[in-house]
Design brief:
single chain; Rossmann fold; five-stranded parallel sheet; four-stranded parallel sheet; about 15% strand; globular; binds D-glutamic acid
Length: about 250
Amino acid sequence: MACIGIFDSGCGGLSVYRELIKVLPLEQYHYFSDNAHCPYGEKTALYIQRRARFITEFLLDKGADIIVVACNTATAAAIATLRAEYPDVPFVGMEPAVKPAALGTRSGVIGVLATAGTLKGSKYLNTRGIYESDVRIVEHVGQGFVELVERGILEGPEAEAVVRASLQPLLDQGADTIVLGCTHYPFLQPLIERLCGPSVRVIDPAPAVARQTVKVLEQRGVPVGIGPFSVELHASGDPSSLNRLFASL
Ligand code: DGL
């Protein structure tokens, strides 16, 4: 049985957890929500690196064999530092799904929704550099999306107004594919898809991250699939939003 540590600035990483349990249903999970420090989106890289280090220590204490950084912003700011400081620990990170979007677009325009931290990170900028000669890539911060999800507001007039304000500029520029570049955003995916209409494809990278986790565990020779399954939720702040979203999965 593998022990899988997962962390995010809040409950968004549960969008990765729900994909992980599909491909790794018999493992032991520890999920850490850093909601006392959420959102990460506008914080400095140094601040996020300090938090990532603290959470890594916590998850290693719990016996984690692998750590899934289920946060695009923390991946952008801290995964290189974590890999340098913990060379024996496998880390799996997030990356906006620009590649499948670029391969699938018909209009030639793809829209990326992410936090400010992710959009200015070198990882994302490199990926964008690879594809922007073939497709036009337009971006927008999902302003207020993280806060909505943390408050458990996934539908209704308030959610609709907040989501529309960041989504519409991408649609207006001709995007026929929307990449969800923040792990909180898939919880708003039904709303996003409704506002986009049926001709627009919305991509959540979490299934690909879950498959990558399986691959890394196999490469490391960590036995999986033995069971029993268990999950523990941890939060640096009030755990109620995490518990609520978890219960709805
Ligand atoms: N779930 C985080 C991400 O994927 C949210 C960032 C934030 O806390 O602003 O980027």
